[in-house]
Design brief:
With 377 residues, this protein is α+β, with helices and mostly antiparallel strands. It has 2 domains: 2-225, no CATH class; 235-376, Macroglobulin (MG2) domain (Immunoglobulin-like, Sandwich), CATH 2.60.40. Helices cover 48% and strands 23% of the residues. It has a 5-stranded mixed beta sheet with strand order 4-10-9-6-7, with no helix packed on it. Strand 9 (341-349) and strand 10 form a beta hairpin. Helix 5 (92-112) packs antiparallel against helix 6, helix 7 packs across helix 8 (173-196) and helix 8 (173-196) runs antiparallel to helix 9. The longest helix has 27 residues, at 2-28. The relative contact order is 0.10. The model has no long low-confidence stretch (mean pLDDT 82).
Amino acid sequence: MTTMGSVNLSKAKVLWADHGQRRFKKVERYIPIVSFVAGFVWDSVMLTRIDLLKDNLILLAYWIGLTVTLLLSQQVRSHALKSTKLIQFQRYYPWLMNFFQGGLVSAYIVYYFQSASLSKNIIFVVLLVSLLVANEFFRHRLEGLGLQLAVYFILTQSFAAFFFPIIAHSMGHRIFMLAGLFGFASVLGLCIPLYLRGVIKKQGELVRILCMAAVIFGILEISYQENLIPPVPLSLKSAGVYHEVEKQAGKYQLSYEPAPWGQFWRTINPVFHFVPGEDQLVGFVSIFAPVGIEQKIKESWYWEDSVTKQWRLMDTHRYEIFGGRDGGWRSYFVKRKLAEGPWKVEIKTQAGKLVGVLDFEVEFTKTKMPLKTILVW
C-alpha cells in the first residue's frame, strides 16, 4: 500500500507539473510585455529627479542590464552560448531585457510627461514606444538582431543624452553629438563579440548593422536640429497665463480663471478674459534644470493677426536660469496691452532649442471674471 501510494503521489506530481507547464506556455508570450510594463511602473515609483545620484545609478543599472541581457539572449538564440551555468537561465534573458527596455523608455516619459508642453517632446517618445511594440509583436517577421540593436542604439543615446549633461554640468549640441557617438560605439562594442562568437556570421551583415546605426544617428541628429527631440535635460515644469501675481515667503500666489466644468482635464481656462484698461496678463513659467546647469532662455510672444492669419512677434523676454530647484527656475512677464485672438509663447534656449510652447486665446470683456488662487513653490 505504501508503494502504491508513493507511485500515485509521483504520478500526481508529474500530472501537476505537466498541467503547470501547459498553463505557463499559454501565458508565456505575454511575459515580455508584462516585463516591459513592469519597468514603467517601477520607474514611476523610483525616479524623482534626473540629477539625483539614485536616479542616475538606476538608469546606469538599466543600461548595463540591457547590454548584458541582449548579448546573452542573442547568443542563446544562435546556440553560441557555451556556459552551462548561463544557459540554464536562458528563459529569463528576454524577460529581463524587456524590463530594462521598459525602464529606460519610461525614464524618458517620467521626466518629460511632467512638462507643460508635450506637442513636440511626445513625438520622439511615441516613435520609440512604437519601435518597441513592433519588436514585441513582429519579432518573428523582422530581423531579430538588427531590430534589437536599433532599439538598443536609440535607448543608449537617450540614456547618454540625460547622463552626460549631469556629469559635464553642460548641455547643447556637442553633448548630444557625444551621446550619439557613445550609442554608436556601444553598438560596435556589442557587434564585435557577437561576430567573434558566430552570431553575426558574415562581414556583410556586420556592415549592414553598423550602417543602420549610422542612419539612426543621422535621423536623431536631424530630429534634434528640427526640435523634435527636447533639449535634455531641461524640462518645462509649468507655464500659464494669470491675472495677478504676488510673492509670499518664497512662493508665488497666482490668480487664474478656472477651466469650464466640462474641461475636467484642465486647471486654467485656455481663454483669457481681459478687461482693457483695467486688467493685466501675467505669463508665469517654471523651467527645471539639473544642478550645475546654467542656460539663457528667450520667450517669444506671438499674436495671430486675424486679417493676414500670420503670427506676429509682439514681445521678447530674455532671462538666465540656474539649475537645482525642485520646482524649477521661476520667471514671470506682465502685459497690460493685448490684442484679441490666439496667442502663443515659444520658450527656447539661447541656441534656439524649443523647451516648450504655451497657447491661449485672449477675449475682451467688460467685467472681470471670478478667480481662484494657487501657490507655486
